[in-house]
Amino acid sequence: MNIAILGATGKFGREIVAKLLTNPNYSLTAISKTARNIYEDSHRVKAISIDATNRKDLKNALEGQDIVYCAVSGVDLPIIARNLAEINPKRLIFMTVVGVYNELAEDNGSEYNVDNEPEQIPNRNAVAIIENSDLDYTILRCGYLIHGKEDEYVITKKGETPKGYISTIESVKKIAADIIANHELYSKESISITKDMI
Fold first, then answer.
1. Residue 102: in which H helix or E strand, if any?
2. Rounded to the nearest 5°, which phi and psi values hold at 85?
3. pTM attached to this predicted model
4. What φ, ψ does residue 129 adopt, rounded to 5°?
5. Model confidence pLDDT, tens digit, residues 34-83
6. What is the CATH number of the domain that holds 133?
7. Which residue from 67, 81, 95, 173 has the least number of CB within 10 angstroms?
């Protein structure tokens, strides 16, 4: 299976690349502005240094991919989301953060809701683009990423209140790997993966 990781040199990008490389059936394309500085091409890894806001470059980089995992953050995220919607990969896992729907409870992280945190606006706009597209997507909403246990999480769906605003890197990697192994899992859904803080 061919899997492209956008944002492959970021904090989580490096983690998910390492996780997926433990499966010998996966071939990875690591994509970021500095991918070739971090990754060396091998029989299972191809490094592509591009700016994902350039639709033509992104389309070329995603050619032949079975799954695209987007682990990009920042103000350019809506542009990248629009590019992905137009390129229309077979399957997309789009990572973002809790709070994009103002779904965090008043006493449990509400300061991170988009109405209270302007830095969330690009995340909210990118999610809206993905949800209104024809893509076969899963939106993974995570909290602040820390190291912890793989089974230290609660999944909530859009419209439900997340249990917290912190996520373990290990639990997010586990759910991502589960979705990659089963393309129908959480298809066309937005889920949060957070530690129970209540």
1. none
2. -60, -35
3. 0.96
4. -65, -45
5. 999 999 999 999 999 999 999 999 999 999 999 999 999 999 999 999 99
6. 3.40.50.720
7. 173
